[in-house]
Design goal:
CATH class of the largest domain: Alpha Beta
Helix content: 55-70%
Oligomer: single chain
Strand content: 5-15%
Number of strands: 12
Distance between the termini: 45 Å
Structural class: alpha/beta
Length: 575
């Protein structure tokens, strides 16, 4: 884990030290107060009944009422502290966990990042009955010690019962570890399939794929439930065995106590008190067995959380660099296929190799080539989503790592192939959900993208809600709103991946005009194109084929040829 994230994780835990200490103190007080019952029974049988003193009984019972009142208060405070600690942990880690989830998902090309689900699992565990049992476990020895003080053989019997229950707990740990690990992995795959199904519901329904997808989803769910049921069955069996042993121990304590009382070695009060103490001594162990599945899931969740944090960049930059001018330098970039897309045991396939070029502020670059040539991969590298294995990408001489995504993101514009707008208003989407966005900046971006008039014709203009299943925008309109989002506040570098995929002729003309106006304001524009109209407004062309750079040149020189190399036609190059 990087030092910054490890420090953050440790700092969060340190903030909970006060709560943990308070919980421990309340646990001590609560467990001491739980001795009230056995001691009261001991006094009733050994002193009050033989003496027949009603006033003494009344006084003792009044004292018992007060002590149990305090026990209830301490137990409620402990439960509240557990709840507050759980939500405090969630609040402290949720932002960085989500950053890690997004970063890992992007860099592993769609691999599940996890983190959010694991944080929820950890929060639910902290508010369950498992953690209180951990704080009560040390009192098992104290309760058994009190039983030894009452009589040696009663202590021996209580110790044997505790050892037996602890053995069941150890068996449960080894028997459920693998099934619970498999359950977590299966649930992650099931969640991915479920989300993909929701995202592509229209396609699934329109093409009659409902039954087929449902069958695949059911298969994944069955696999998850099989592993879960395997672990649950073990937990249920061992949990029932633990309860049976606890009940048997209490009866055994009564039988042994009765024998000792007959032998005049203990009193009747001692017999009852020892039975109650034995039940109380095994209660934390019994509760731990009942919640062991939660313990294991929480441990797996913590491990995955640490993994997510290990892949998360710090949101703070050591030095705030000035806004870049848009000078782009790409030097001998090599990018390999993500591990998730590479068969096991085989070397990673190169997606890009030997890519190099330079762009000045105001340049427009059209990246063309056949499908699978690496155009989208290069676009992702140019905005810092992917990091090349070799070579470098620099903006105004500095690598992306010198900024961090939060800082450099303000100076970048990106329009991916698959346009996604978020639930919110049109204005919020264009402004990238900035809380202090200026209306003039939103309108300027919309005008520049040629979508201002379209937005005004919506029911509520810029306040129209979009991003849901009932969004009023067509595919082309959504793409133009996303273009406005990409050019909001005139970034230094704008990368557009097939920006005219859903546009009509009017939209393509507006796109070309937008690129020209951006370049006139010294914004560097990179356009990934399959249709020649997308590169009308650029001045340079980069031709890719099978991940290799075929040619990089001025657009007009490339089309006309320079005497040494024949010219090419853009239409044939992008097919």
């Amino acid at each position: 884990m990087p030092a910054d994230q490890n420090t953050h994780f440790v700092q969060v835990l340190r903030k909970l030290r006060g709560a943990v200490l308070a919980i421990a103190l309340f646990s001590v007080a609560g467990n001491l107060l739980l001795l009230t019952g056995p001691l009261f029974m001991l006094q009733v049988y050994d002193r009050i009944l033989p003496s027949g003193s009603v006033p003494t009984l009344a006084v003792l019972f009044g004292l018992v009422c007060v002590l149990y009142l305090f026990y209830g208060i301490f137990d409620a405070l402990r439960a509240k502290l557990f709840s507050r600690s759980a939500y405090g942990l969630d609040n402290a880690l949720s932002k960085v966990v989500q950053r890690g989830w997004i970063t890992r998902k992007v860099r592993q090309d769609g691999a599940p990042g996890g983190g959010v689900r694991e944080l929820k699992t950890l929060r639910q565990f902290l508010t369950s009955g498992g953690p209180p049992a951990l704080f009560d476990l040390p009192w098992v020895a104290i309760y058994i010690g009190v039983i030894f003080a009452l009589h040696f053989w009663l202590g021996v019997l209580a110790t044997l019962g505790a050892c037996l229950v602890v053995s069941l707990t150890a068996i449960q740990e080894f028997a459920t570890r693998a099934p619970l690990q498999a359950t977590g992995n299966s649930e992650a795959r099931e969640a991915i399939l479920e989300q993909k199904t929701i995202d592509n519901a229209d396609t699934i329904l329109a093409m009659g794929m409902v039954n087929n997808i449902a069958r695949i989803w059911q298969s994944a769910r069955n696999q998850s439930m099989t592993h879960s049921q395997s672990a649950l069955s073990v937990s249920q069996v061992l949990g029932s065995a633990s309860k049976s042993i606890r009940l048997l121990l209490q009866s055994g304590m009564l039988a042994l106590g009765a024998f000792l009382a007959i032998q005049q070695e203990i009193s009747a009060g001692t017999l009852i008190a020892a039975s109650i103490l034995a039940g109380r001594a095994l209660a934390p162990i019994d509760q731990s067995v009942a919640n062991w599945r939660g313990f294991v899931r929480a441990r797996i969740a913590v491990k995955r959380l640490r993994s997510v944090l290990a892949h998360t960049e710090t949101s703070e930059s050591p030095l705030a660099l000035p806004k870049p001018g848009g000078r782009v330098s790409v030097q001998n970039v090599v990018k390999l296929a993500p591990e998730t897309g590479t068969p096991e045991g085989q070397p990673a396939r190169p997606l890009l190799q030997g890519i190099g070029f330079n762009l000045a502020p105001g340049d427009g670059l059209g990246i063309i080539g056949p499908s699978g040539s690496g155009k989208t991969c290069l676009a992702r590298i140019l905005v810092g989503l992917w990091t090349p294995e070799r070579g470098s990408v620099r903006l105004d001489g500095a690598p992306f790592s010198a900024w961090g995504h939060d800082q450099i993101g303000k100076y970048l514009g990106y329009l991916p192939q698959n346009v996604q707008l978020f639930p919110g208003t049109v204005g919020q989407n264009i402004a990238r959900f900035e809380p202090d966005a200026e209306p003039n900046g939103i309108v300027e971006a919309a005008r520049l993208a040629g979508v201002h008039e379209i937005i005004l014709n919506l029911a509520k203009g810029y306040e129209t809600q979009i991003g849901g299943s009932d969004s009023p925008l067509s595919g082309g309109q959504a793409q133009r709103v996303a273009l406005a989002r990409a050019i909001y506040r005139l970034p230094s570098l704008v990368v557009l991946d097939e920006p005219n995929a859903n546009l009509d002729s009017e939209g393509e003309a507006a796109l070309a005009e937008c690129i020209r106006r951006l370049r006139a304001r010294n914004t560097t524009v990179v356009v990934v194109a399959h249709r020649p109209s997308a590169v009308d407004a650029v001045n340079k062309i980069l031709v890719l084929n099978e991940g290799r750079q075929v040619r990089f040149d001025d657009k007009h020189a490339l089309m006309a040829g320079d005497g040494k190399k024949p010219g090419i036609q853009i239409v044939s190059a992008v097919k």
